Structures are given as structure tokens and as C-alpha cells.
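Below: protein 1.
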Amino acid sequence: PRGRIVMLTGISSHHLNNSRDAAVYLPPGYDSSDHRYPVVYVQDGQNLFDPQTAFNGVDWQLGQTADRLIAAGEMQPAIVVGIYNPPNRMEEYTSQADLYGRFLAEELKPQIDARFRTRASAAQTALLGSSLGGLVSAYLAFSRPDVFSRAAGMSISLPWGGGAFLRHAALAPLPQPLPKLWLDRGELEKL
């Protein structure tokens, strides 16, 4: 069995004063059951499923990978929301991170929860991204634990802003509950 992708177009944000598309992966069995699913919000969503929209024409093949892992029992079925980025990606993922977090928590997530059978609690809601998308994912897990309980930052851009996220994480009070994080970087990447 395979999951399917639903495209959402023109999702507007009053917080960011723009709009964007999102690709929503629904896991195998979604259409033939009444189950509710955890949700993973992934930054740079145009890179996840389709080489025609992906940077340099190479997508993450996230749908095929999720199908395979779910079939093997290695991954719990989940809804994946691939959030496309606008031209000002760098600003949204860095200096506008709090506004971007408000867009996710107050504008996008309520639409996803209303349209799809989600498990809407923070305990069932995660963030994922790479590079600056990983950085904003980790930041929002710390700053919005009421909405997101976990995040993964792959090839995370920790050096951005002279290590601003690391300083923020070291100086800010620890959120409660403490989010679960996965952060990775290649050994040739410098801090």
C-alpha cells in the first residue's frame, strides 16, 4: 500500500503577510479507516516529494521512504505536512522565526487539524527540517512546546548568526515539557 499526496495551495498568513503551498502526505490506510494520526510539519516542503519542485531537481523521496518504513513496521503511520518556503526563506527561518512559529501554530496547524484526522496534541506534533529549516524546527520546539513536542534538525545550520540558537538554548529557561530533539551535522561542517 502507498500513501497519497494532497496539495494545498495559497495558504495565507496574516502574521507573515504572504501565502504558500503545502504538500500533505496521507499514510497508507488513511482513506479506508477512521484512525487519527500524528503530524510532522516539514520545512522546505517543495523538496520532499517531487523532483520537479525540489531544489536542483532531487527530492527527498519522503513519501516512498515513509511507505516502506510503515510497511516494515519501522515507522508509525503519520501525516506529513511539507510547507513550501517563500522567496524570503532565510528571514522566515531566522529573524522572523517567532512570526513563522505563529503562522504554523495559529494559522496552518488549525487548518490541518480541521481538514485531516490528526492527533492534535503537542505530544503528537513534530517538526523536521534541514539546514536553516532544521534550525527553525529546533528553535520552535524550544519556544513553542505547547504546540510541538519534538523536532529534528538534519545538517542543522548551528553556525548561523554566530551560533545564536546555541546561545538562546543555553540562556533561555528550559521549556516544560522538555522537547525531544534530533540534531545532526556532518563531520566536515564547522561550528
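Below: protein 2.
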Amino acid sequence: MQYPKVYEFEWKKAGKTAVIFWAIHGNEICGPQVLEKLIQDIQCRKIIIESGKLIIVPICNPKAYQADVRQIEDNLNRVFYDKKDKNNLSYEEKIAEFLKQYIDAGDYILDLHSFHAQGNHYIFQDFTDEKTNEFISALWVKNIVQGWPELYEAWEELDTIWYAYSQGKIGALIECGSHRDPECFDIANKTIQNFLIFSEIIYGKWEKNIQNITKIDSMIRKEKPGNFTKNYIEMQEITAWEVIVKYDDWEEFIAQKDGNILLTNKDAKIWQEHFYIAYKK
């Protein structure tokens, strides 16, 4: 069994424990490079840990990362639920069980991702309590997408952040940009810096950004062969009655009202996640 490599940095002054994940999905290639640079900067004391503890897992799904594929057996970010039979777990389910111990140890969790298409970065805000709002506002993220727990609770498919909240932690999942877009690196670095300052791991003043809020409404699985009507980018605006997908049997998927499209996957196989729709609050 190939488990992720974990880096831990701790200072003698007591404080919060901050946890950073990347490459939950193996094809999110830019993230490990960002985190490996952060690790090097800490090791050579270019960045000084002032208090607390920092846990970094640059490649959460190492087997998928080596193969440059999204997953080996399961979507790792859907299997953080409690398993009744722990003797018969998939590869990703075993990884989820391994990663849980670091979420349990943390106060703040930052799960960083990248996506297939071009487009704007955004953050999934799973909860809207006062402490979470303060945390989200401190991160350098322009677009906020709410409503994820309501969408996924019915399927009992839990991600890192939902699990973190179930353990009393505060966290956020951020889509930093397209897999190979240089801007993805910049957004990740700014977000990580703000995250470390907020959690008091390092000293400084975080950079603020104007934030827009939408609420995710639905996840559409690819139930039959078909294609998008255009090359959508992340958070692209869509209008009511816009045809999003034309299927091979001539049926169409049509947007019901104005909103945004996100997490598009033009290569989705039958019954995989095809895209999501969010509407402005």
C-alpha cells in the first residue's frame, strides 16, 4: 500500500495546527510543486514558523499522481464517510482513512485543487457560521460557492472539509485554477500565505480580495453520450434556457435560470460527474 508522504513543522511556541492538502486527485499537477517550494522555504528558514504546527501533504493520492489520472478506484474526495467494513476498502478509501488522522489533528484545514477547464478560481464554503465566515474572508479567493453539503448529504458522499467539520474543525476547499495554468500557482501562493497568517503560523497581514457569492444548485452526471455546446470555462455565466449539453439521442440539457457553470468534465464517462450549476445568492 502506497501512502502519502507527510511533512510536519512545529515551533516551541504553542499555537494552532494548520493542515494543507493537495493532489487529492492525481491529475492536479501544479499543487505539489507549490507545496514542495513551501517546504523548501521552511527547511532553509526563508519562511519562519512563528507558532503552532504546520502539516503539509503535497500529494494525497500518490498512486494516481504517478499515473497522471484523477483516481485509481474511487474519487478520493467522496469517500471520507465512516466505513462499516474496513477490511474491504478500495485504494482511495484506505487513503481517506490515513488522511483522517491529520484532519483530526488540525484546527484549520486547507484542501487545494485545480480543474480541467480554463476559468476563474473559487472556494467551496460548506458552512456559514461566524468562525467560518471569518476564515473564508481571510483567504485570497474572489468567488465563493456555497451549498455543497446540501447537495452531497443526500448521497452520503463526504469530502475532506465535510469530514473536518464533523470533527469540529474549520476548513475550505479551493479550486485554484486550471491544472497547467501559471496563474494557478499565483492564486495558490497568495491563498496559502493568507492561510498561514490567519492561523498564526507565520507573522504578517493578509491580502484581501473582493468576494462574490453563488450557491451550488445541482450536480449533473453524464447519463448518456453527448457533448457540451461550447468550451465552458470555470464559473462562466450561463443564462436561462441556454442549451448546455446536446446528447446523441437529440435530447438537450437546458439551464433553468441565470447562473454559473463549474467543474465541467468533457471527458466524463457514463455516470461520472459531468458538470455543476450554481446560482447567484
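The longest helix spans residues 182-198.
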